[in-house]
Amino acid sequence: MALDTLIEARGVAKTYQSKDGPVESLKPLDFSIREGEFVSVVGPSGCGKSTLLKMVAGLLPISAGTLTLAGKPITGPQKDVGIVFQSAVLLAWRSIEDNILLQAEIRRLPKAAARERARALMQMAGLAGFENKYPWQLSGGMQQRASICRALLHDPSVLLMDEPFGALDAMTREKMNLELQRIWSASKKTVLLITHSIPEAIFLSDRVIVMSERPGSIAAIYDIDLPRPRPLDVMGTERFAAYARTLRAHFFAQGQLDAH
């Protein structure tokens, strides 16, 4: 394992047992993610992207191969991981600050230090002044910022994101892409993002993993060589368009495109 490799998969596969027999969800996968790297996974619906993310989180067991985090096998829920889902999953009766502090309560972290960190994260995420608001008083984008803060509260080395902006409108989504790039740059976390959006994957990532139809396998991995920080204007460049054409070609070749 390379010194800076944080997540490594070798022959990782997933098969579910059903009443009709075994169902193959993921064919053997090989990939590694370096410390501080931003990696996205794109692929058709049902190809096992979310399954892969849950296995990295330790929420689903692997069926074959080896999957390691910082050189140690992932055998159950990982303490050094934060997860952001498509829905912000905030509790309506708790303030934004208390929603973020839920992570501290579950992990029994010291209260005063956790509150201080929560406020620093809210400042970083542009939520200063909204500490005492309730989720229903915030836009979808701001709710997702709170969800990202909650995932970062215990200072994990890895942030796993499963379609975090999929429910947002196009303009809010672009704004959140900029916001996530800024948060990633400031927090120095390793990010694994699952997305259906090819432009989002290109804009945010150092590398993009393209998956095939179910049972999912890795069709290709592309390095995204665009200077950082990336302004939204980069999406109008020929280089960006060339990456988009390359990625889209995989889905057109399969006769379907589940990306926008």
From TrEMBL:
Q: Name one Pfam family in it.
A: ABC_tran
**Gene3D superfamilies named among the record's database cross-references:** P-loop containing nucleotide triphosphate hydrolases
| Highest taxon listed in the record's lineage | Bacteria
Residues in ABC transporter domain copies: 7-238
* Record PROSITE patterns: ABC_TRANSPORTER_1, ABC_TRANSPORTER_2
Q: Which family does it belong to?
A: Belongs to the ABC transporter superfamily.
Q: What is this protein called?
A: ABC transporter ATP-binding protein
Source species, please? Answer: Variovorax ginsengisoli
Q: Give the taxonomic lineage as stored in the record.
A: Bacteria, Pseudomonadati, Pseudomonadota, Betaproteobacteria, Burkholderiales
